[in-house]
Structure formats: structure tokens, C-alpha cells
Amino acid sequence: MNNSSCSSVDEPPDVVGLRHLTYAIIMPVILAFGMLFNTFSLVAAARSNLNSVALSYLFAIILSNLSLMILAVPWLMHRASQSDQCYSHATAFYHANIEPILLNWLATFSTYVLLCMSIERFVSVIQPSLFHRIHVLSRAVLALATSLCMCLIFHLPTYLKWSITCPDCWSVTIEKDVTSTTLWWIYIYTSQTMARFAPCAALVLLNIITIFKYRRIINKRSRMTTNAVSASQTNTPSNSTNNLSIVKKKIVLSASSQDEKRQLKLLSGLVCLVAVCIVPAGVAALLPQPDGNEHYVFGFVVEALELFHHSVISLVICMCNNDIHRRVRKMITCNSVSF
After folding, report:
1. How far apart are CA 58 and CA 259, in angstroms?
2. Among residues of the chain, what percentage have pLDDT more than 90?
3. How many CB atoms lie within 10 A of CB 43?
4. How many angstroms separate the CA atoms of 170 and 91, rounded?
């Protein structure tokens, strides 16, 4: 959440209208669905049979995204307000000095948890023998604690970007004496590289390699099982019991193949979400603060995309797990029948 499209006193009417459309209509809808999806994911994960390591990662990313949705409510109200909005000193201080740190901290932590999960998935596919050595709870807790501290350190200096002024009432403004210095831009490039560009590049690369390797494994296993079923069908005398057994094997293979194809599609969607929604936010943070309105539209789109990413990513990850996917389908089916 870069606040790259912060309000200006001299906003033209079309920018004011676009601001209202984005922050008063579009983003609240995304936020509402985000709260619903993350709460639903939390319930589904709590009912799953996952081991403690997988659950620790899953709960971390769901809770970080859900907390982000909750903290985004006052942020949206602030972003949708008029440029000359008056606040109390405490409210202005929160919007200027605390809110940017909290929002960016949670967003970056969510990305790093996703990176940890992608590393484990990559190792499980590429080096299965090594997977059991890294897939332990102590390593997961250490990775989460380290990521949490690192992400906070990345964004602590944003405390200096905003200031509160009181000519007639308390308001939030950009501290241009700070943001125009070379040291500040060194920090911006470094923090965005560590918070967005580097983890996103690693996420995309790891998941693409995992997808291609997993696809080869699936195709190889499918050929082997198909040949085995064909051989048993050829060598076994024809009777109703044997035919029924062969049909059952084919049904199981078909269901397994559908689950694996679904996982591949979801992993591909995860890669697209990261590339399309997170990387532009880093680019927006590197743009100089405009004196005019040239970056407003880009800022609106970027912030909407980033909020959308954190709204749906937890549900996408949950759907990648077969156990959670089956439980979610069962929950939806039961609710539909009872309704």
C-alpha cells in the first residue's frame, strides 16, 4: 500500500471522480470479498488434517491477509476523504506514521510466507529426499519469525515520509524535505527490491520450475498406470468382477488426474497473481511523487490490484491442497442442501 495516489488540493474533477469510484466503490467491494474469502479459508484450514508445519504457514498467511483487510478499512476511509479533511491529532498521527508501516509490513510478510511455502513445494518436487529435513516445525517457526522481523525493518523508515500539519486543523502531507533526498531514494530502491521485486522474482521462478517438473511427473505416472491397467485388462480373464475392478481403477486414476490438473492450474494462477498484482506496486513506489496528476490513474489501479491479491491468495493456496479442497466442496454442498 504505497499511497502513490495521495490526494492533492488541486485535483481536477475527473481525478476526484476516479478517486471516489476507486476508494468508495471498487475497493470496498474487494475488501468485503477479501474478508469473506480469508475468513472462509481460516475455517477450512482449521478443519483440515494438515500437519503442524503446513498449518503454521497456512495460518500465518491467512491471518496476515485477514489483518490487512481489517486495517485497510480506516485506510480506505482516509483515501476516499477530501484532500482538506480535518482529523484529530491522534487520527492524523495514525494515518501518517503508523498505518503505512502496518499495512506494508503485513503485505510484505504475506509475500514472504508465500515464498517459504513455494520453497517447500519446490523441494518436495525437485528433491523429495531433502524435503523431510526442512519440513519440520522448528524451521517453519524460525522462518516465520525471521520474515516477520525482516518485513518490519524494511518499512520502518516510511515513518519519515508523512507529516502532520496544523495550519487550521490536523492534516496529513508528504514530507518533501525527506522524500527528495538521495538517501531516501536509496532506501526506496533497496526496500522495494527486498520487499517486492526479489521475493516476487523468486516466487515466479520457483513455481514455474515446479509446474514444469510436476507436469512431467504427472505425465510419466499417467503413462505407467495406464499401461499397467491395460496389461491387467489384457492378461486377466473377462468376467464381471474383474471388469468392475478395472473400471474402479480407471475412476480412481481419472479423479487423481483431475486433482493434479487442478493443482497445476492453481499454481499457474498463483504465478499470475504475484506477477500482475505485486510487481506493479513496487514500480509505483519507485515513481517520483508528482506535482501534478500524471500518476494518479496508475496509483489507483496498483493499489486495487494489490488489495485484490491479498483478498484471494489465501483461498487459492487452500484450494491447492486436496484435503482442504474436498472439505470446502463438502461445506458448500451441505450448505446448499440445507438452504
Report:
1. 20
2. 37
3. 14
4. 9
156: number of Cβ within 10 Å: 12
Q: Determine the pLDDT at residue 91.
A: 82
Strand intervals (E) in the chain = 162-165, 171-174
Chain centre to alpha carbon of residue 38: 11
**Given phi > 0 = left and psi -120 to 50 = alpha, else beta, which region is 204?**
alpha
For residues 295 and 2, the answer to whether their CB atoms sit within 8 Å is no
**pTM listed for this prediction:** 0.83
For residue 107, give the nearest of 189, 19, 192, 184 by alpha carbon: 192
Question: Which domains are assigned to the chain?
Answer: 13-338 (1.20.1070.10)
Give the pLDDT confidence score for residue 253 in this predicted structure: 47
Phi, psi of 162 (to 5 degrees): -110, 150
Q: How far is CA 146 from CA 113, 140, 149, 281, 320, in A?
A: 11, 10, 5, 23, 25
| Of the candidates 310, 334, 295, the residue with the CA atom closest to the CA atom of residue 18 | 295
pLDDT at 252 > cutoff 50: no
Instruction: Measure the CA–CA gap between 176 and 8, rounded to whole angstroms.
Output: 14
Q: C-alpha cell of 311?
A: 483478498
Q: Rounded to whole angstroms, how far apart are CA atoms 37 and 310?
A: 10
Instruction: Report the SS3 class of residue 161.
Output: coil
More reliable by pLDDT, 11 or 315: 315
In angstroms and rounded to an integer, the radius of gyration of the C-alpha atoms of the chain is: 24
What's the N-to-C CA distance of the chain in angstroms?
A: 39
Nearest to 111, CA basis, from 48, 28, 194, 40: 194
